């Protein structure tokens, strides 16, 4: 299964970074395509989009100033299948992407994604005190996976901080 295409351009307001594509995303070629994934619902309910996008519309996020990528490109059944080598390679590749494209905010869709990226163990939700790439704000949000046990309203509340953060940074 081939990796799915990143949606990137320079100076994005937010770059969303997931663990890696699901098998469904790998099959369809679209981000967050698993029907149990709540990413598109979360963006809409948090006020980041005016409508609930479908995975096949993932490229339209660029028009809103949002991009999509993953720390590991290989689609898997779950994040436990990702190897240490893939994380090491993905971490360096992601740092290069962030340094080149310079989004205002990088939103890590899952605490574990940020822990793998930053090497930090103690991570809180929301804006991080210190970013990995200078000049880019790191923001940690819960995973949108249907397996996450947090209530959807709680997750949406954390993502809801992003529109205000964008307004402050613009």
UniProtKB/TrEMBL annotation:
One of its GO terms (molecular function) is uracil DNA N-glycosylase activity. Pfam families: UDG. It is an enzyme of class 3 (hydrolase). Keywords: DNA damage, DNA repair, Glycosidase, Hydrolase. Its EC number is 3.2.2.28. The keyword Transport does not apply. Residues 8-151 form the Uracil-DNA glycosylase-like domain. Gene3D superfamilies: Uracil-DNA glycosylase-like domain. One of its GO terms (biological process) is base-excision repair, AP site formation. InterPro entries: MUG/TDG (IPR015637), Uracil-DNA_glycosylase-like (IPR005122), Uracil-DNA_glycosylase-like_sf (IPR036895). NCBIfam families: PRK10201.1. This is G/U mismatch-specific DNA glycosylase. The lineage of its organism: Bacteria, Bacillati, Bacillota, Bacilli, Bacillales.
């Amino acid at each position: 299964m081939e990796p799915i295409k990143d949606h990137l351009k320079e100076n994005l307001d937010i770059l969303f970074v997931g663990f890696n594509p699901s098998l469904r995303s790998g099959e369809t070629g679209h981000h967050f395509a698993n029907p149990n994934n709540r990413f598109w619902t979360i963006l809409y309910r948090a006020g980041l989009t005016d409508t609930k996008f479908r995975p096949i519309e993932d490229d339209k996020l660029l028009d809103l100033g949002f991009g999509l990528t993953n720390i590991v490109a290989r689609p898997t059944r779950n994040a436990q299948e990702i190897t240490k080598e893939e994380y090491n390679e993905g971490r360096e590749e992601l740092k290069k992407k962030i340094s080149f494209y310079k989004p205002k905010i990088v939103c890590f869709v899952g605490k574990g994604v940020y822990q793998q990226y930053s090497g930090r163990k103690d991570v809180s939700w929301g804006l991080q005190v210190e970013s990995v790439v200078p000049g880019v704000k790191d923001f940690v949000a819960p995973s949108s996976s249907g397996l996450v046990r947090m209530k959807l309203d709680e997750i949406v509340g954390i993502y809801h901080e992003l529109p205000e953060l964008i307004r402050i940074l613009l």
